[in-house]
Amino acid sequence: MYRVATIFFVLCSAGSAVALAQPFRVQEQETVLTIALSRFTIQSGIDVVFSRTQAEKWKTTCTYNGPSARDALVCLVTDLPFRVQEISRNQYVLIPLLTDSRRVRSHVLSGFVVDATTGETLVGAHVRLPDMGAGAVTNEAGYFALPGVTSGRRRLLASYIGFETVDSLITVDGRALSLALTPQSVTVEGVTVESSPSLRADLATTPGLVSMPPAHLRELPGALGSNDVLETLRWLPGIERAGEATGGLMIRGSGPDQNLYLIDGVPIYHPWHAFSLVSTFQTGTFKDINLYRGAFPAEYGGRLSGVLDAELRDGGRSEPHVQAGINALHGRFLIETPVTPRSSFMLSGRRSYIDQLIGNRHPVSDDAGRRDTLRTGYYFYDWSAKFSYRPDEKSSLSISWYSGRDVLDLRLPFDVSLDFSSFLRPADLFFEVGQSWGNRLASARYQRLLSQRLFLTTILYESRYDAEENTFIQPTQTASVASSYSVSVQDLGLRSDMDWYLSLRHHVRFGIQWVDRRFDSDVEALLTYSPGFDEDIDEHLAVDSAELAAYIQDLWRPTPRWRILPGIRVSYFGGGRYLRAAPRMNAQFVVHPDRLSLRAAATTQVQYLQRIQDRQARLYDLVSSRWVPADDMVPPSRSGQLTTGLEYQPVRGLTLTADVYLRRSRNVLLPDNGFQARDQLLGSGIEVSGLLAQYVSGEERSQGLELGLDYQHARWRIVTSFTRSRTQDKPEGPGEPPWRAARFDTPRNASVVAQWASGTWLWGVSALWRSGYPVTEPTGRFASTHPATGETTLILHVPEENNGRLPNYFRTDVHASYRFRAWNADWKAGIDIFNTTIRRNTVAQSFDASDPVIAPRSRKGLPLIPLFEIEMSLR
Amino acid sequence: MSSHGYAGARPLAAALIPVMVLSLVWSACDATDAGSRSSLIVEAFVQAGPILPEVRVRQTSGRESGREAAVVGLADAVVAVRVGDTSYAYRHIGAGRYASILPAKSPVVEGDPFQVDVERDGVRATGSGTVPPDIVISGVEPIPARTAVEAILVDSLGLSIDSLDVGLGARLGFIVPVEVQITWDALEDTYWVATSLDPEESFSSSVLDFFLLPSEVIPEGGRGTASWKGVYAVPVEDSTSSLPRHSLLVSITRGDAAFAAWMNTQSSGMASANAGNVEGAIGFVGGVAIDTVQLRVGN
């Protein structure tokens, strides 16, 4: 509702008659209409009656020098929704055209936003009409739509993090726009370019989203020099790794299995290589990465804590591009090329190469002529490919494929050491370990602009994770164990999402998702104690389950400052026949588009899959991720989260964020007797009922405060974060112990990255400090007597789990890179020095009851490690 | 945007600040506490027969205390045992062991209910159970390997990615493995048995023990003749050494599920605050049936 205030400007002066006799001169450039009219009345003595509320929304550009006051006024309102009516000789009124619907035509202002250099569509770009206080955000296809925009000239702002904001005057006539954003600071004809002053929160697709373009992430350091999305995200508040350089991603204290990872909308179950040292998310292969910390909208589901949604690059549409790099861990390449004017292709690959340096197989012999072949093979690889085809302006088809795998193949004598001369010989007693795990995704996505208001996206996909662990151990000449273990989960899914641009205030998104999952597990083992005495197990388990989910959400902008995203997701899970509804609400209030925004969210989530492992077996379940679906024995987990925060930009280049959150989860599986060690060769097998005996159903609660600072000015960039949080859990039910620190509870976590960049050099230092992880410490020990033999055994007394902590963790890394051009290519050479202070952090502790005094046996972290990288880019 | 927008947001921002301060305070509490209070340990394995069971009363010792402190028992506990309808007062007989002051009025027999009460320093602990049927080893058959075999002797298989710790510290030695089969008459499948092969000369390697089978806790299975096979090893000098003559204690103990859980606690080497089946203390009070056979093996 608008308040219309009509103001009369009566300027009577002795010189008015003189003014009438003189020509009217108007020269305005992008002037607010109220100001221009005031100036006109003062200079001319003409009374102009107009609605200030209506007029202050518009800017005018006009040059007039002539005798007619009417013409001067008509010039001032050209292309604006007003008409000029003369009331008397010296009095005019501006009538808003909105009151005369026959004269006003409204259009859907729509179009695509693309990267000017590559032609890639930009997901999550923000398009605004500041004069109307309206805005839209591009979807996965880079499409936006703003219905109900009246015809005429409008000022349009298009912005995207890492790109220059386009500030342009456009003519709204119903035709679709193509907005090209450039990452460089250049000026193109007709478009004014400025560095983006807008708040990230204001640019986010939805409230609560952390949107980080790969170009930004690429410059942040990763541990051990890895160019890795999940590693660089750890510099953001509330995000950390579950280990020193390995371990899954933890968002706000959650378990690593409570996060959903998506590549082109397809879930990936175990996005890690090299024992979680590096992830499958190679920064350079993605064009867009979105991270939701807890409060994710209804279009996502299936996990409790966070969502990482990454979009593979489409392939350059303008010119071929080749990039290659090599560092201490792996070599990689990326090829992008247009295929036809309407299609493009991207192919990227990565492989570790240390096995090629030291060799996989080592034929050995001894003085007696015995021969053997030792094996020391380990490698991992990734392949990503995407073909994008755009048959016409209204539709696009893309086919994505990803395959990644780790392979470990060892055959070594037991007395292996770094003294190669001692282990490169035939041995009777040895162990063989063959482990392999990987993911494979394939998807086809079809997007169709059904009308300017309706955009359909449909994805058909298959996602498979599988792992094998084969072990053969010969510890004596008469005893041995051979085991073969495998797990897999395979998704066949179909999802369809519809964007409905209902009005300027409502962007409705709804969809349906169906997925059929198959879980397989096998274990075979033969345990030979002596030549005539062995035992074996042979078990197979296959489970099928289907999940059907539907959601609807509405990005509602009641005023230009408010963005509210209510939504609900309803899902049905076949295993156990669970029907769950998960409502959510996100809200954001932009106090000042360049300065301050506030946000809040209340969300609920459901997770039907839980990851468990045999915590007793020493032979298998060592590197595999085993997922079990909800069923009658395992109810789905539920969580609710409240979060609120703000983003404040006091000066250009400095962004401060602060968030608080509170989360509560139920029906999560917690290890029963968390101090249980793997003390059996073969555990309880693969039957879920047996494994569940090692777990209890529990509750989790987390709360925390997250502070972040991002400062970019001139050659400097500083990113810091500080998190104060608690995550606790407890088994459900009466009589259970009280809340205790969760496995990765980290009350304090602080990090800083400081970078200085010139045209060619980039220097950086990063530091990470956090509380040590909880550890279960014995408070003492006692003796127990065997009833038959009378032997006394010493037993550690651990009254409760996670009752102690490791020492605080601290590490500093240094990195530097130099860019240069040679052989018609762009080069970047870099060095990362991990743990420059050579601090030996304690990463684990164990205790032994038979020690003279019960003292922790500490396992230390990685020492100083220098790593080199060189990258070549050819365009 | 006008300054009016800022002014309107001040109440919202003002509301956020106390929320954040509260969150900071709330999340500041770190509840981890290893603690140091000692706990009472009570063990009583009640068998059928004319002699009333011993009760062992100990307490947990602190981390800084030596091993001996954990073994030393408590002498100042008040212990009483009731079998059926008869109660017996106990007295300390040394090293934390308590025995009945008077002999049993009648022998403890299968199915007798019993209760053990311990009070010490204001802490009361109670455990109860019933006496299971006797168990009798009907056969023991040791089968030594013909020759000594090479074996790896290693304390840990821990490999660490984080610390680049690839050395296993393994060494080679020689052992003679001995396979032993025990047979007995099994009862209902509600019982569990703990088997054990204890050679006179001890041999221990935490890793190699996985590939031998000197003891096990298993469900007894259905009624009929049951057997269990285990393997232990005796270390020898070299590959030409023969198995030295040694004594071997073979034992089998029958108990209920709580007994099996307590035996697993013994083998795991770690016990939580509520380990065992004794209310008010850590430990086990239950009925067991035990049979042992001592034999000479080798040469």
Characteristics of this structure?
heterodimer; A: 875 residues; mainly beta; Phage tail protein beta-alpha-beta fold; Immunoglobulin-like; Maltoporin, Chain A; 3 domains; 22-stranded antiparallel barrel; 5-stranded antiparallel sheet; 10 helices; elongated; B: 299 residues; alpha+beta; 18 strands; disordered N terminus
The value of Rg of chain B in angstroms is 28 Å
**What's the CATH class label of the largest domain in chain A?**
Mainly Beta
By CATH, the architecture of the largest domain in chain B is named: Sandwich
> Counting H and I runs of at least 4 residues, what is the number of helices of chain A?
10
- CATH class category of the largest domain in chain B: Mainly Beta
Which structural category do the helix and sheet elements of chain A fall into? mainly beta
Helix content of chain B: 10-25%
CATH topology name of the largest domain in chain A:
Maltoporin, Chain A
Overall body shape of chain A: elongated
Q: In short, what is this structure?
A:
The complex is a heterodimer of chains A (875) and B (299). Chain A is mainly beta.
